């Protein structure tokens, strides 16, 4: 018999949730503030990045940081480049 708390713990420790947490950690530690705000989703190792970044370089940089992470089978980089983006947001 599983207690309600046990089910909740299992949801938070699923491989996809662990992968999301790891990707977010890597993006936050990149040193680029806009990457810390990227939305991350994952399903069976397929990671999707969404949000806005100020340059194409930053979009590519996000991809470069995420691809080597163990467990990332595929990456969908759906970051939009916003030329009006202010780095102080």
UniProtKB/TrEMBL annotation:
Protein's name in the database: BON domain protein
Organism: Gimesia panareensis
InterPro entries named among the record's database cross-references: BON_dom
PROSITE patterns for this protein: BON (PS50914)
A family per Pfam: BON
Superkingdom in the source lineage: Bacteria
BON domain boundaries: 15-83
């Amino acid at each position: 018999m599983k207690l309600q708390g046990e089910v909740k713990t299992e949801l938070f420790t699923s491989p996809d949730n662990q992968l999301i947490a790891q990707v977010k950690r890597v993006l936050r530690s990149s040193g680029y503030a806009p990457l810390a705000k990227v939305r991350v989703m994952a399903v069976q190792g397929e990671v999707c990045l969404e949000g806005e970044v100020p340059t194409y370089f930053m979009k590519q940089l996000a991809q470069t940081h995420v691809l080597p992470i163990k467990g990332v089978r595929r990456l969908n980089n759906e970051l939009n480049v916003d030329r009006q983006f202010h780095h102080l947001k």
